[in-house]
């Protein structure tokens, strides 16, 4: 679509022929945008009107009318809302009539340009007050630039939402999605009035005030992993620097590089036509295979395989270049997926749905089929970020996610049999990452970096969780720091100004994880005695209970002064049968239902009844006694003693009914 200063817009075919001219506005048409599906068009003009048009140029509706010219417009990610400017204000208006309109003052001068990204759901605005700003979709300010020398005349997101470009008088700037600036160019162009990115996000074009068109290419992206640093020095050339021995390798590609990822000992590079897989042990002989679609928008790596995301779908490849699977789910839109909404581990793939943001689809990596009974994981509020743990057994795979309220939850991905609860383990969490070699989770909570050394503790002994945490004050990192990597015992954090900070955590919890996964309990106890750290003992206690290693658990609980638990564990040891020992271990972790089921299956009805009496589950105790026609009198006796102790009368109808039929011996 081509906008025109005389109030018309032209619909133009690929070949450049004018298909249709439409009288749209009184005065100039100032901006026009297709929606993401290409099914509708929005135009704004000097007459202050916002109009929605069909693909063929028929007027569908006039969304808004106001007294001042509308200089810029953008569609919301779901094409259900429109963002437009009104003087110093930004307005988000849904297409549905009577829906709530969001309006806020965004700049101190006239707003000239705005853009809204479909992947990260963030909004950009640029104004005559010489500032550019980043907002979330609720109108909260995430970043505001310093006043520049001249008014900002153009601003635009790259398609994947990782970068945006800012144009001004003799100025072109490249910025990260959080606002800080990567690069500043000073071309002799006059003001840059409009910027358009290529679909692959590697280059952009700008319309300049001196009648020229400026082209720019993004170079010098960097990827780091352990001792390797990879830099894109030209569009088709990468430089690999090994910081240990200062060796430098140059990697040449046939076409321009679009996306790359460096992790788990492999560099995966996608160009416009091919995918290259390099091993960090040998840079000379990459594995090369052709791509189906071309424009790859995301590469995610796990230890055994990697995921490519393009416009056509999700493709899981082995590092030998073999296509393993291609998972699908209803209504899948791959163009809006990013590293926050997709997560990959050795056996599982998790994808957050865009149509319903409370839902996570979980797939088996090797087959591409939905995991377990095929039902997705559903949460009560919208989910913002997801992450799968990387190590351990498939049936113990955990997923951590942050919801809209910035609460952190953890749950098992296993979706059949006895389902584990979704448990909240943190609040005010902005960013999270799992460790690459052991199941340790880190996140930034408000102004603290928190490391959950053994998040599984919530399923073993919830009270123990606070003792298994490590916290460090990171308030000096300013607003919105992001965790980039968590490799080995080093956490890399990017501050709001773009600088990278490396933090080291204790190496001992990772060693403890290794010992526990190999059932080397004596070594684990020895390590804890050597380190003499309460946090480590608490982790060991939880790991031992999870693996039913009660002897080790007893030592660990004793070391952190949890005497009541030590006594309970030693009482479990003296129980006569294996089933009752197992049941009491389950009770210890709070799994009363499973403990009762186990006892009933083993025929230990009296123990199952006694468990419910001890937990004051009176109704269930009576129900079991009646069902199995045994020990009804015992339940009633315990109930009567309980009521007498508290000086209360029986009010429960079932107990009254059975009390009449059973005479209880007086003790």
Automatic annotation (TrEMBL):
Show the stretches that span the lipid bilayer. Answer: none
Q: Looking at the Swiss-Prot or TrEMBL record, what is one Pfam family this protein matches?
A: TPR_IFT80_172
Keywords annotated in UniProt: Cell projection, Cilium, Flagellum, WD repeat
The record, for InterPro entries, names: Beta-prop_IFT80_2nd, TPR_IFT80_172_dom, WD40/YVTN_repeat-like_dom_sf, WD40_repeat_dom_sf, WD40_rpt
Return the Gene3D superfamilies for the record: 1.25.40.470, YVTN repeat-like/Quinoprotein amine dehydrogenase
Taking every annotated instance into account, which residue ranges of this chain make up the domain IFT80/172/WDR35 TPR? 536-664
Q: Can you supply one Gene Ontology CC term for this chain's record?
A: cilium
* Subcellular localization: Cell projection, Cilium
- IFT80 second beta-propeller domain spans which residues? 220-508
Q: What is this protein called?
A: Intraflagellar transport protein 80
Instruction: Record the organism.
Output: Merops nubicus
């Amino acid at each position: 679509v081509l906008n025109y200063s005389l109030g018309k817009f032209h619909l133009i075919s690929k070949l450049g022929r004018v298909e249709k001219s439409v009288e749209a506005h009184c005065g100039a048409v100032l901006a026009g945008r297709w929606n993401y599906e290409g099914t509708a068009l929005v135009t704004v003009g000097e007459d202050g009107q916002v109009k929605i048009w069909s693909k063929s140029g028929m007027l569908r509706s006039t969304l808004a009318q106001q007294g001042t010219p509308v200089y810029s417009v953008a569609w919301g990610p779901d094409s259900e809302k429109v963002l437009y400017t009104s003087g110093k204000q930004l307005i988000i208006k849904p297409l549905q009539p009577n829906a709530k309109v969001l309006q806020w003052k965004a700049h101190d001068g006239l707003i000239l340009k705005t853009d809204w990204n479909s992947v990260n759901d963030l909004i950009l605005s640029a104004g005559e007050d010489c500032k550019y700003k980043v907002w979330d979709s609720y109108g909260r300010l995430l970043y505001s630039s310093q006043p520049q020398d001249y008014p900002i005349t153009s601003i635009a997101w790259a398609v994947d939402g990782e970068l945006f470009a800012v144009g001004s008088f003799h100025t072109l700037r490249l910025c990260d999605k959080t606002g800080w600036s990567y690069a500043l160019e000073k071309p002799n162009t006059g003001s840059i009035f409009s910027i358009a990115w290529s679909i692959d996000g590697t280059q952009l074009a700008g319309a300049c005030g001196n009648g020229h068109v400026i082209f720019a290419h993004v170079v010098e992206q960097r990827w780091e992993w352990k001792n390797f640093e990879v830099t894109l020095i030209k569009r088709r050339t990468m430089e690999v620097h090994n910081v240990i021995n200062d060796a430098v390798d140059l990697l040449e590609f046939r076409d321009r590089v679009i996306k790359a990822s460096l992790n788990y000992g492999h560099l995966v590079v996608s160009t416009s036509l091919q995918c290259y897989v390099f091993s960090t042990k040998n840079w000379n002989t990459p594995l090369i295979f052709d791509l189906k679609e071309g424009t790859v928008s995301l590469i995610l790596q796990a230890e055994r395989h990697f995921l490519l995301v393009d416009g056509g779908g999700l493709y899981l490849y082995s590092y030998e270049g073999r296509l393993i699977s291609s998972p699908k789910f209803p209504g899948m839109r791959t163009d809006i997926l990013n590293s926050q909404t997709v997560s990959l581990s050795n056996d599982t793939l998790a994808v957050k749905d865009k149509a319903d943001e409370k839902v996570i689809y979980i797939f088996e990596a090797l087959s591409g089929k939905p995991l377990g009974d095929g039902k997705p994981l559903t949460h009560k509020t919208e989910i913002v970020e997801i992450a799968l743990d990387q190590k351990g057994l498939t049936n113990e795979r955990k997923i951590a996610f942050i919801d809209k309220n910035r609460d952190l939850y953890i749950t098992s991905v296993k979706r059949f049999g006895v389902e584990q609860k979704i448990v909240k383990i943190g609040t005010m969490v902005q960013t999270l990452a799992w460790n690459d070699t052991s199941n340790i989770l880190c996140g930034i909570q408000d102004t603290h970096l928190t490391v959950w050394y053994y998040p599984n503790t919530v399923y073993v002994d919830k009270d123990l969780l606070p003792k298994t945490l490590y916290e460090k004050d990171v308030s000096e990192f300013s607003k919105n720091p992001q965790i980039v990597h968590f490799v080995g015992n080093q956490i890399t954090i990017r501050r709001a100004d773009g600088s990278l900070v490396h933090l080291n955590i204790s190496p001992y919890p990772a060693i403890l994880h290794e010992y526990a996964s190999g059932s080397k309990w004596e070594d684990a106890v020895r390590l804890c005695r050597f380190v003499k750290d309460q946090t480590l003992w608490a982790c060991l206690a939880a790991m031992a209970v999870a693996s039913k290693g009660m002897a080790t658990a007893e030592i660990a609980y004793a070391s952190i002064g949890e005497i009541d638990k030590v006594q309970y564990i030693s009482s479990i040891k003296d129980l006569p049968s294996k089933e009752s020992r197992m049941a009491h271990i389950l009770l210890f972790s709070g799994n009363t239902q499973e403990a009762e089921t186990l006892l009933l299956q083993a025929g230990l009805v009296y123990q199952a009844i006694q468990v419910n009496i001890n937990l004051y589950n009176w109704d269930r105790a009576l129900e079991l006694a009646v069902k199995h026609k045994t020990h009804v009198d015992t339940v009633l006796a315990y109930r009567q003693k309980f009521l007498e102790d508290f000086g209360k009368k029986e009010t429960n109808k079932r107990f009254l009914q059975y009390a009449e039929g059973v005479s209880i011996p007086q003790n």
